């Protein structure tokens, strides 16, 4: 732990709105200096959890600690957090410098010190020389940076961000993702970041907490979440995966008609799903023992610039009406040699990439 | 030599752009005509009439009269005093109510709004007389209070300044609340949240963020109320009991007294000029523009 | 005057809007339009005079209300044609006549030979007589109310709240009577600014006790009915009607200042000749007697008394009954023609002090 950040302990946090259970006994530990993302679809409860951390929503029960201190009873203004809102929530009646200096003014910081800290904060977000601008003269990206500068100017130990990039266009959003991450690394404050964009979560986070239905589904590094999803929901939500039903009996999985070897040991019998990532599939010219294979017919082949996406209709006799998608990075294959539409194709999936999840969501 | 060379289609495109400007100007025309017909011409006519004497010739007599009789100055002072006080009390009662309405759900706010607007459906005269019936010496309020022993003697609520203010504030309140509420609803609630997340107490967040953002609506409401008050007739006439003589009442009695539009017009002109001066000074003191823009 | 309107000429536009209900296009030659003050007063006129007189002549008379002589001026000056005859106080007619907006009445057509002295003028044929009196609340003072103007202005002998008119009319006369001026000398004293100031000073002396400045007859009647004030100046007929309604109110004829109401014709009306004949018809004593059944405003035609057209008990309630008239002074419209604007401005100044 360092003194520019605090760890956050969330325990049994529960919140209901009438019959709707927004949060169901969520427990979560955010380590000091970590960049943790709350990821989930809309209505999953991720924003509610963030609002509980910020103090705008009071849980029905449960505990929130910043460091050793219980804060669940503290009003927002005493929590000492920096927060960035989805629509920036800048004060339109103040200029950029006044917006950024606002927290300092509240804290009774001297004018000169405020000026310096505002300059530093603006320079951190690369907005030097824009202090005198009015808010309505800024672009969306600039507003985002001002909101960020305002949230960090008083060096809070915890930074909360609620879908801060959702209003920006794709290119700017991707730039900002990297910038935000770099900023976090240089300031090293504990950051809790809410998004519904799994790609954004994978790009930026130290760890991701996947939230659905008010519950914590999985907590792990982006790599873990991506490669070893706990359940079908996560497997489906993260990445471009296709889930194929599988039956497991005595540790042996059957997908379609074929026996499949998986990367994990399957201790339980029952219905499972094979998680197939398009980029893990390869076109098999010959069969080897370290992989599983699918047979099918090419339905579609789309040039996407950096890659070629093919849609393969699997043999209906074995798999029913199911398709797989395969993504071939441009340059890895001679595109001219690929099978054309309606031609037969055999796809391979390495055993190390063959990962099963239980078919029901609850079985994580 | 004149340069003959022209860029491709430039002349035609310039013309097209010009035509578009004309079209936009054309759209403002109905409004300009309306302003001309409804505002400039009548005010010009008013101004003209104020210099017409009783015998129909050009004369300053209508203005001289106002200087010679102390009554006019007092009437103007009363007019502005009552208008300012009414505006002040409207803000005092209206602002918290509008704030409350802006913070509750839209459904409940709409119900409140109906409550605010119901008085609009009743005639002004009826409402004014209702206050008289309620508040006079042997009216409902005084009778009940005396019977219950809360008062040893009835309070003089009406036939004076306080009665006039009660009636006028009641009638003017919706005019303050409507623009103010619309403004408050438009304030991004995240701004106040942002303020408190950054360390502002609820009071501080209100005064540094919510209140400044509500000022345009407040100013609009104050302006409407103030200007409408200046022309009030019925309520001060009924509830003022002759103790509160406002400009509109004197305008009316001057028409009767002098049989001349000029005698009334001059009062109107002075009222207009003084009002404009007050607004000019007010706009210098409070920069309207500062709050005019939104993100 | 007897404005039953709460706010009289308040909104002249509104009044003229009301007048617009007369359709000018479809008027036949045997149709007249007459305007008056509305309320109980016009009801009495309508039932007692306007309609019976029209019937007797075989013509149609349409009625409406109006806001006073300034409405007549507006109509004449704007060239509109909205009514042929109006009912007005003598003072209103006098100032209208001075403005040149009225037709001179033809007294060879209109017979005023039996009118009480002074109850007709060039522009106004007198129809009824009313009085301004000092009325008191009998609950406060019993039978011993202010029986003279001196009593009305004596706040020590008669503590209590007062109401006076928001307009100057007949208020200065009352003040001077209270100040000890004999009723014959009132207009001599008032014929100078000093005299007017003297009257105003008398009113100033009791100003803290004046709770309300009234603007209409309906209002001063209501003030007495509600017990809002203990005494007020006002029109006798209003108090009599209020008394019938259960108001605790009384007055003494010794405070009476007699004034009269009549009919005038705006300048330039098309039906002038017919209007003149109609006014002549309305001057007949039987109409005035009938009218007096509805409100205690006495006839200007002395034949009503001479021919005993009224029951004696009713006749005794009229301001113009000889027993009542002998105590009273009579208001002089010529003084108002000369001094009204000056007196009115000074009066407003006194009110706003």
What does this structure look like?
The complex is a heterotrimer of chains A (364), B (295) and C (353). By secondary structure, chain A is an alpha+beta fold. In chain A, 24% of the residues lie in helices and 34% in strands. Chain A is built from nine helices and 20 strands. Chain B is mostly helical and 295 residues long. Chain B is flat. Chain C has two domains: 8-129 and 259-329, D-Maltodextrin-Binding Protein, domain 2 (3-Layer(aba) Sandwich), CATH 3.40.190; 132-257 and 332-352, Periplasmic binding protein-like II (D-Maltodextrin-Binding Protein, domain 2), CATH 3.40.190. In chain C, strands 1, 2, 3, 4, 5, 6, 7, 8, 9, 10, 11 and 12 form a twelve-stranded mixed sheet that branches. In chain C, strand 4 and strand 5 form a beta hairpin. The chains are: A alpha+beta (364), B mainly alpha (295), C alpha/beta (353). Chains in contact: A-B, B-C. The interface between B and C is medium-sized, with 30 and 33 residues.
Search tags:
heterotrimer; A: 364 residues; alpha+beta; Rossmann fold; OB fold (Dihydrolipoamide Acetyltransferase, E2P); 2 domains; 6-stranded mixed β-sheet; 5-stranded antiparallel β-sheet; 9 helices; 20 strands; B: 295 residues; mainly alpha; MetI-like fold; 12 helices; 76% helix; 0% strand; disordered C terminus
Topology:
The complex is a heterotrimer of chains A (364), B (295) and C (353).
Chain A (H helix, E strand, L loop, with lengths): L7 E10 L2 E11 L4 E5 L6 H9 L6 E6 L2 E2 L10 E4 L11 H11 L4 H14 L15 H13 L5 E5 L7 H18 L2 E6 L2 H7 L2 E6 L2 E6 L1 H6 L4 H6 L4 E8 L2 E4 L2 E3 L9 E7 L4 E3 L7 E13 L3 E8 L1 H4 L3 E7 L14 E7 L4 E4 L6
Helix pairs in contact in A: 2-3, 2-4, 3-4
Chain B lengths: L9 H40 L11 H8 L1 H34 L2 H16 L2 H12 L4 H8 L13 H26 L2 H9 L4 H29 L3 H6 L7 H12 L2 H25 L10
Helix pairs in contact in B: 1-12, 2-12, 3-4, 3-7, 3-9, 4-7, 5-7, 7-9, 8-9, 11-12
Chain C lengths: L11 H8 L11 E6 L2 H19 L2 E6 L3 H9 L7 E5 H10 L20 E2 L2 E14 H4 L7 H4 L9 E4 L5 H8 L7 H4 L3 H13 L4 E5 L2 H9 L5 E5 H9 L4 E3 L5 E8 L7 H11 L2 H7 L6 E2 L3 H4 L5 H4 L6 H4 L3 E2 L2 H20 L1
Parallel strand pairs in C: 1-2, 1-3, 6-7, 6-8, 10-12
Antiparallel strand pairs in C: 3-10, 4-5, 5-8, 5-9, 5-10, 5-11
